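Example 3.2
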Amino acid sequence: MDDNIVKTYKMPARPPQYAWFDHKNPDYSKVYDIRLAILKKIILADDAQRLAINTYYAEHPVDFIEDFMFTFNPKIVGQDGSEDGQIPFILFPKQRELVKWLQDIEAAGEDGLVEKSREFGFSWICAAYLVHALVFRKGFVGTVGSLKQIAVDNGDADSDSFFWKIRYTIKHLPAVFKPDIGESKQMVISNSHNGAVIKGVCGADMGRSGRSKLFFIDEAAHIPDLEAVDKASASTTDTRVFGSSVNGKNYFYDKRMALPEGNVFICDWRDDPRKDQEWYDKFLAFNRKIVTAQEIDRSYENSTAGVLIPDRHIVEAMARDASNANVAHMPLIIGVDVGGEGEDLTVVTARRGHVVLYQKVVPKDAAIDLPDQAQYIIKVILNHAKPALICVDSCGIGFGLYGNLKAHYGGHIVKGINAGHSANDGINANMKALMWSQMAEWIADPASCLPQCEQLRRELASMVLGIRGGGLRFMVDTLSKSPDYADSLALTFGETVPFAARHDMHSNKQVLYTQDYDIFKA
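Structure, written as tokens:
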């Protein structure tokens, strides 16, 4: 071969190496066999092959993590084939997605937010991602921040601290990849081979930590002055990742709602193959509901006290299969929440008994003129169906739409509901409290079915129950915008069907209901 010709190699991308791995019944012996075979090939590789290997792993952090990194779990000491709590770091599918999402967010130079359930492994994945950068990326600067220093770096004896995880990961790397970090220093780790650095910051100094390529803000929802950290670090960091369990509707929540959906990553307990409904029920049995809402359910609303509809009830209702529900004979009830200008929407909800059939939004161009809006609802959304009852938000701008629908269907079917009017039941302060309370009972019923809609879920769980003088219940909406989807559903409880007249679906004959109808029975 000509001495001037240099032979090069390129490793092709590979499918997931450990897709077979069962996280509930792990077989680590097979993992060790695979890892050992890979290491033998690396050791026997020539310089050109070694360059291809390094290039491949630099571009594929998921493979680097699964082939060479370890994690530690004190709960499994002496279990699952681990005498000391050390186990190979094999990612489950959602964790692999998280690593790739981090790559995409960083490559785009954009902020991201991770909303996580307890024990998802977020801190370990961040540690692994930073160590990968420390090994392969020349001049990389990454930062880890949290409220207190002990959460960031509490020395070599505290496995809960972030830097302990980073040092542990480095310590157990194969020698061929191990960076030269010298003697351990608090709150800083550097690789003398390539100048890459990982820094730690805490408290009020987080926003003034100097320039970074990547900044992980751990348990961000529990940092009281997160807004100050956000503003101070915006000009010094290319990419910030705000990761946390939820803690009510604070600045973390505002940040989450402001970011595009693609910049928000959800780590739900259901995505963890080690957990199932039995695990969840056991956790709920031994912890307060507010703790479960915060640490497991990711419920911003239920992680604070006084919530009307538990997020658990909403999730269960959305998970039920409505196809088997026998509701075709039940009266069709429509709720119309009327939106005004700006972001407010006009939402139409159709419900029969225990099943919400659909929720549809009137396009803004159709909402410009109220007669056009009414015609859109009649012809497009309801498709000329003949409801038994239509309850319309008749307050303010809604009064015009109520009038137009009433002119078409008649006053025996269309009812105007003013949410601020007194309920006159001695329990609820107004009609809004009455409708939402009835809706809460309906959702709690094990037969009720809701459409799977994240916006509806957040709106339903946003209402907080209050008590006025005289013991009357009232509702406090904790969202920054009108809960249009939830209010539209609540309006289907605005009036009971026994007192409403409808037109028979097969004739023009008017039919009056005189038999009692239990709205909660399908």
